[in-house]
Amino acid sequence: MSLSRRALIASLSATTLSLTAVGCSSKDGSDSKGGSGGSGAAGKAGGAGGTRKIRFGYIADFNGSSLLAIADDQDLWKKAGLSPSISVFTNGPIQIQALGAGDLDFGYIGPGAMWLPASGKAKVIAVDTLTDADRVIARPGITSIEQLAGRKVGVPEGTSGEMILNLALKKAGMTEKDIKKVPMDPSTLVAAFSSGQIDGAGFFYPLVETIKKRVPKLVELAADTDFPDHSFPTAFVSGPKTDPALTAKVVGVLAQANDWRAANKDRAISLAAKMLQVTDAQAGSDAANVQLLTTADLVAKTKDGTVDGWLNGLAEFFVGTGQLAKAPAPSTYYDGAAFVAAAQAAGKATTR
């Protein structure tokens, strides 16, 4: 599936924000907007002490924001000699498009966008969480996937919304040809579902919660947990060509923030809420759809092949949907050894 079909909304879907603008200002007082361009330019010295500027994308949910918020709150960026410029995106595919264009250095994606690293568009530098945030939803009165036949179903293409929709259709013995699929970006989907322009959607939290406020009797027809044979990892990504030393620094920051989040979940929810400019209750509701994993867990699961199994399972699914021609070896887009080395080095640094 071509990423070009998303080009019409790419320019409208990413808004660069400084950490200050989202209530998460850099502790050293540096201007977090000052990222230097492209994966080839990222990591150039800037400011006192040779601080390296990076541009980091995220999605406005607990998964995508919490480690970035923690890294700032705990001075992890500064300790690593990094100065991030943070940009919010509506989904993963647009971030990968920005990575490829040299407009972003690192980003965050959900499982539905994992076909893009698998196709060579990006590299997975670290797994974040396992998610249960994806849903197929329908208007009141529709009680099964089968009842979506012939109806308009909105979906942000190339995302976890499309992934959960295809999984649910397959389970019901259907395909996209049995519905009237309407590709749309997330904000348009919220409006279209709320106003009754579409009958169903392949979508994800926290935006499903936004729709529920407008259509409180909407029906959830399918969720990630309905597919126990699959795992749904979220991940941090870089462009296909990045500086290994810089990537190791970033992974080190993420690893330390990840362990802090696992040990301080309530505080992590509050920091994410502040960054997202929502209430703690809203961020907590979103966090309820997440399975946190410690860095030690991720290291162990990388070493024993569990992470490769997760990625293989998704790749095989994407072959079935036509998004991949074949399932590549996970090692072609996830350097597990590099993640383990960087994560373990970060762990040793925190115990000194």
TrEMBL record:
Keyword Kinase tagged: no
Gene Ontology cellular-component annotations: membrane; periplasmic space
Region (Disordered), start-end ranges: 24-48
InterPro entries linked to this entry: ABC_SsuA_sub-bd (IPR010067), Solute-binding_3/MltF_N (IPR001638), SsuA/THI5 (IPR015168)
Gene Ontology MF term list: ATPase-coupled transmembrane transporter activity
Compositionally biased spans, kind Gly residues: 32-48
Domain of life of the organism encoding this protein: Bacteria
Protein name (Swiss-Prot/TrEMBL): NitT/TauT family transport system substrate-binding protein
Biological source species: Actinacidiphila paucisporea
